[in-house]
Design brief:
about 325 residues; alpha/beta; Rossmann fold; 2 domains; five-stranded mixed β-sheet
């Protein structure tokens, strides 16, 4: 199956998830959704109205959410456990580790409103740790789709995968990206969006669109940058990352996550393990108390914008 993002308008990945899971429920009565008081925020009200016997509400009890989802999956059901990312991955980390991953139950954990989607609600509601925490746990695939086409494809891939999956979603509308999306390109491999040999821009989730916009700005300065959407953070696409780095003078990673333990550190470790030494920079959230504000204001403060990525890439090349 392939999907052309050019035909898809800008929309929130959470909304695309809700639409796709509804399609899957029509196809399979064993498709179940478990939520922790997240029916509204997860855009699942229409799903609940259409399939009242296929949605389970556990209230604000994320540990119970994961345990129940694992139990249902053990009976053969296809289970999606939906909860805000900061609470799903912090409060119920032990249940994820033991009930889902160690027990090898095919639950898809859906972290909604991830990153700094909650904006001015502040650091208690930010999820900038989730990738780092889950990367340290054996037996879970971590996927961060960048647009509607990637989201739609990865939801269907997760439903059929038969393995633990963490699906990380934001809630603001994001533009459709160029190129064709396949199951392999979102569930296993990175996806090259444009070519360039001066710099390689590697990004995931809602950081991909500003990375692509930055490449367009850099091209006007005769700096050619390749852009890669890297939805599958774990296991990471070793071959594509190494190829991108070998064919560029500098590497920049961009993510809506802490600079510790996310996409950037995964790429840095990969390059060092393979003896590739290139000027390298991680754009993400530093080790400090986060500033408060809207998601866009936070992005601007920390440079997760077109202008911020351009400035870092330009400086990295000048210093090399």
């Amino acid at each position: 199956m392939t999907t052309d993002p050019a035909t898809t308008p800008a929309t929130a990945n959470q909304e695309v998830f809700a639409e796709t899971i509804t399609e899957l429920a029509r196809e399979n009565s064993d498709m179940l959704v478990v939520t922790s008081d997240s029916r509204g925020s997860g855009k699942l009200v229409p799903f609940g109205e259409a399939f009242p016997d296929q949605i389970i509400e556990v209230g604000i009890a994320e540990q119970n959410l994961v345990g129940i989802a694992a139990g249902l999956a053990s009976t053969g059901a296809h289970v999606f456990a939906v909860s805000p990312a900061p609470f799903l991955t912090a409060r119920s980390l032990e249940q994820i580790k033991n009930d889902v991953c160690y027990s090898d139950h095919p639950v898809t954990l859906v972290g909604i409103s991830a990153g700094v989607s909650y904006g001015a609600l502040g650091t208690t509601h930010h999820s900038i740790h989730d990738i780092a925490a889950l990367r340290a746990i054996n037996n879970i695939r971590i996927v961060v789709p960048a647009d509607a086409a990637e989201t739609r494809m990865v939801v269907r891939a997760a439903a059929a995968a038969g393995e633990p999956v963490y699906l990380r979603l934001g809630k603001r509308p994001v533009p459709a990206l160029p190129g064709t999306v396949t199951e392999a390109s979102v569930f296993h491999r990175a996806r090259r969006l444009c070519n360039g040999s001066d710099a390689a821009l590697l990004a995931c989730g809602e950081a991909v669109a500003p990375a692509l916009a930055a490449a367009e700005r850099l091209a006007a300065e005769n700096i050619k940058a390749s852009v890669h959407s890297v939805p599958c953070i774990r296991p990471i696409d070793t071959n594509s990352i190494l190829d991108a780095a070998r064919n560029a003078s500098a590497v920049v990673t961009v993510e809506e996550h802490s600079v510790h333990g996310g996409l950037g550190e995964a790429c840095a470790a990969l390059l060092l393990h393979h003896g590739i030494h290139k000027p390298f920079r991680i754009i993400g959230f530093p080790d400090e108390v986060m500033v408060n504000g809207s998601q866009q204001e936070i992005f601007e403060h920390y440079g997760l914008t077109k202008d911020g990525i351009v400035a870092v890439t330009r400086q990295l090349l000048a210093d090399s």
